[in-house]
Amino acid sequence: MRTSSIVRNTNETKIKLDLNIDEGGRGKINSGNGFLDHMLDLFQVHGGFTLNLECNGDTYVDMHHSMEDIAIVLGQALVECLGDKKGIERYGFYFVPMDEALARVCIDFSNRIGFVWNVKLPSAMAGGIEASMFEHFFKSLCENARMNLHVELFYGNDSHHCLEAIFKAFARAVGMAISPSRRVGGVPSSKGVL
């Protein structure tokens, strides 16, 4: 089983995160915001993972520190779960329609950081969170997972639907990338190492 358990304590947040990328269950998620809980639940359900998260953050300020630190820890957990990445597909991509919204996410667990956010959400807030925080969330996750992550929103009129499409597409893309490779038996790179 590819699992990780990480604790991160700062003056702004106290986080415990457990991730199992080989077994889909319904872990308990408490980020400090119901909308973010919903998005992270979509990640575990559509990725086929089990995610348990407890975050006690300074939400009386806003969600910035909590979202950033959750993304950091989730990225670190993915790195720990994947180890040397032998035998995985490495690349993953997915289109997801969510009612009127359509999103695409492409990833490469390359051990290199490349981030593209081609997303314009239709409203300034989503679930009580500033829309700009979702770009920051995925950028922090990308940097700590040491991945290429390209996120695109083609269209959508409802920010909830737009973000739901993005989180589902991200989950499915990760699920594809971490699955056993049909092409490469060892490390999926001509260099022999990632």
Could you explain the architecture of this structure?
- The chain has 194 residues and is an alpha+beta fold.
- The protein has one domain (3-177): Imidazole glycerol phosphate dehydratase, domain 1 (Ribosomal Protein S5, domain 2), CATH 3.30.230.
- It is 34% helix and 30% strand.
- It has helices spanning 34-47, 64-82, 132-145, 159-177; strands at 3-9, 13-20, 29-30, 50-57, 91-98, 101-108, 114-118, 125-126, 129-130, 148-155.
- It has a four-stranded mixed sheet with strand order 1-2-4-3, with helices on one face. It has a four-stranded mixed sheet with strand order 5-6-10-7, covered by helices on one side.
- Strand 5 (91-98) and strand 6 form a beta hairpin.
- The longest helix is centred in the middle third of the chain and has 19 residues, at 64-82.
- The protein starts with a strand and ends in a 17-residue tail after the last helix.
- The relative contact order is 0.20.
* Strand residues, percent: 25-35%
The structural class is alpha+beta
Number of domains: 1
CATH topology: Ribosomal Protein S5, domain 2
**Count of DSSP strands:** 10
CATH superfamily: Imidazole glycerol phosphate dehydratase, domain 1
Q: Secondary-structure element order, as H and E?
A: EEEHEHEEEEEHEH
Rounded to the nearest angstrom, the distance between the terminal CA atoms is 21 Å
Overall geometric form: globular
By CATH, the architecture is named 2-Layer Sandwich
Instruction: Name the average pLDDT.
Output: 96
Radius of gyration: 16 Å
Low-pLDDT stretches: none
